Amino acid sequence: MNTELFGVVAILFLTFILAWPLGKYISKVFKGEKVWSDFLSPLENWVLRICSIDPNESMDWKRNMKAMLRLNLIFFLWSILILMIQKYIPIWNPANIGNMEATLAYNTATSFTSNTNLQHYSGETGLSYFSQLLVICFLQFVSAGTGIATLALLFKGLVQKQAADLGNFYHLFLKSCTRILLPLSIVVAIIFLLNGMPTTFAGLQEVQTLEGDTVQVATGPVAPVIAIKQLGTNGGGFFGPNCAHPFENANYLTNISANISILLIPVALVFAFGFYLNRKKLAWIFFGVMTIVFLTFVSSAATFESSGNPEIAKLGISQPPGSMEGKEVRFGAAASALWGVSTTSTSNGSVNSMHDSQTPFSGGIFLLDMMINAVYGGVGVGFINFFMFVVIAVFIGGLMIGRTPEFLGKKIEAREVKIASLVILLHPFLILVGTAIAAFTAAIEPAIGWLNNPSYHGFSEMLYEFTSASANNGSGFEGLADNTPFWNIACGTVMLLGRYLPIIGPIALAGSLAAKKSVPFSSGSLKVDSLAFGVVLLGVLVVIAALSFFPALTLGPIAEFFSM
Amino acid sequence: MKAILKDLKLHFATLILFGLLFPLLIWAIGLLFPHQSNGLPIYKEGKLIGFENIGQKFYSDKYFWGRPSAMDYNGASTGGSNKGPTNPEYLAQVEERIQQFLDKNPGVKRSEIPSELVTASGSGLDPHISPQGARIQVARVAAARNLDPERVRQLVESHIEAPLLGLFGTARVNVLKLNLALDEMDSGNNTDKELKSGL
């Protein structure tokens, strides 16, 4: 037990230690200052030149958003096309995988374009190696690059004074991929490779087992895809069971590397904010608020998983390993719980244990984590979501002390508060309406066969699916039979809305902040880098999440918890 | 129109960089480490008999058993049971597994069975069990093979993999490796005796 706990502490410690210098580096990359990776600039300049993009051309928020949307539309169209014709592509399909059906292809293409990686297919039977690399691996880079570049636009908006320019999306996008994602992915992929995660195009391997049976074992070019999947908060598995599969997560060392990779860039971006705006104390406040929530979640989930399933305890067996249904022995209960919280905090969505089989309390924490969706959050977009809560907290804080709300010298006015409120309300709207429709359908048509578990847990399966889609997370209570036209189309659409509206809104907000005059800090200003503001911010996070989602959580995990 | 052309070009440039060149770079590095990049395969007399980290289905009394698998250790279609913790059907299934285990391992008390032995893993391919899970199978395996239980117990103890650096994670036993060593010990048993008597 103690060594399991040490493992958890080591992962967290290493993450925070590494995130600080990475944040400093990212801030320099955003600003275009000198960094060690400048040897890559000839490559970037060459790409930009053949694409006839002028990296120094400054664009306002509208032009940047149009560029982002056009580019993402092309990613989406390319992906849906390849998925629907993968059978006809003559290379890299040793297992003769067929074409994807239209609604499944729609779901998969939206899922990976929107950095969600919700999967209604199973990798070893649903995708050719060609699709794994030129759709999945590719989108895992560019969707993450889109998120990080968007955050760079927001940072620029916060430092601008009476200017429309937010930077150049194309340039920031390319650099986010080449300078941040690529070097880290190479390092992590090599660690994975050396620990026996396959990197081969050999296809299915026939094994003669000791008992004398013959089984087929799926392999593939796994290590590179898993590296970017973790670092870009993507999370889509090469195989069905994701990082529970021994080829996707070979041992405790790869588990440590992967878990750090999940958290690293999201945490580093909080510090990058501090370096970019030279507001390190404020960054620490933000980091502190997120980390308090994160550690609370980790410690409760780890406690519940390690102490085992009470229903299994009633059967009279011993549970020193903890609740082990859906978990792997080489990670153990505590590291599985830490992973679960990490992956739902950061909108990553990869799993190293089956969330459907976790004890109700942990399942509820994972849900709540995605409902808040701003505890570190997905690369780039996580901080953007968090920033919406900051705007609301500034507004409420201003009201409480009776002063004009302002943030970093910019007045927060009706337009900003409206945008922030709409973005925050969109999330519960998508989740609760989607779940309500699904629950209604399942109730009037019980023969529909969606649910793998009865009662409260069955409701949690549906709630989880919509929460995961709207939070662009991608993990699932995988018992849900979700490869049906209803789930494919509904979740696909929720993922699109849950991705792009919460990007466009905040960037419009950044555009309007950039155009504002800077008001000098006075005794009448709200001091944001203070403990008091941190407490208000934490309160806003908790109250909004609790008020919006508590009734739904009560019907699912909370009811199940009390029924035990 | 001009903007779309620009975007299309950028799409294909990033496609080649990240969808093609990056994985091929890692693949090329993997060529230097063929054992690792093929997933740690195990060969016996030129035949592929398994992968170190991919669990196999064991059901004979003479082998140590791994964990239950929701996918019956099918390496081409993997996964967990996704059963919820309070699902009555699932709890009945666990009870059935406990009964089966007790029937096959007389002398083992119910309270000695660790939970991983009667619950399905996440991948359906979990290669490990806990040390306790191996120890309570020693009597059965030794009896089935007509071996000294003490020797089998020692073999189990020598196959316990410590946590990483002795500090992080779980102690565990790789069932496939243990069974391979067991087969070797069993077949080497007679040759050993012959060698010794020859001396």
3D structure, described in words:
The complex is a heterodimer of chains A (564) and B (199). With 564 residues, chain A is an all-alpha fold. Chain A is 64% helix and 2% strand. Chain A has 18 helices and four strands. In chain A, a hairpin with a 2-residue loop joins strand 3 and strand 4. In chain A, helix 3 runs antiparallel to helix 6 and helix 6 packs across helix 7. Chain A is globular. Chain B is mainly alpha-helical. Chain B has two domains: 38 residues; 147 residues, no CATH class. Chain B is built from seven helices and five strands. In chain B, strand 1 and strand 2 form a beta hairpin. Chain B is extended. The termini of chain B are far apart. The chains are: A mainly alpha (564), B mainly alpha (199). Chains A and B meet through helix 1, helix 3, helix 6, helix 7 and strand 1 of A and helix 1, helix 2, strand 2, helix 3 and strand 3 of B.
Primary descriptors:
heterodimer; A: 564 residues; mainly alpha; two-stranded antiparallel ribbon; globular; B: 199 residues; 2 domains; two-stranded antiparallel sheet; 7 helices; 5 strands; 49% helix
Largest sheet of chain B: 3 strands, antiparallel
- Alpha carbon gyration radius of chain A: 23 Å
Q: Could you tell me the number of beta strands of chain B?
A: 5
The geometry of chain B reads as: extended
Query: What is the percentage of strand-forming residues of chain B?
Result: 5-15%
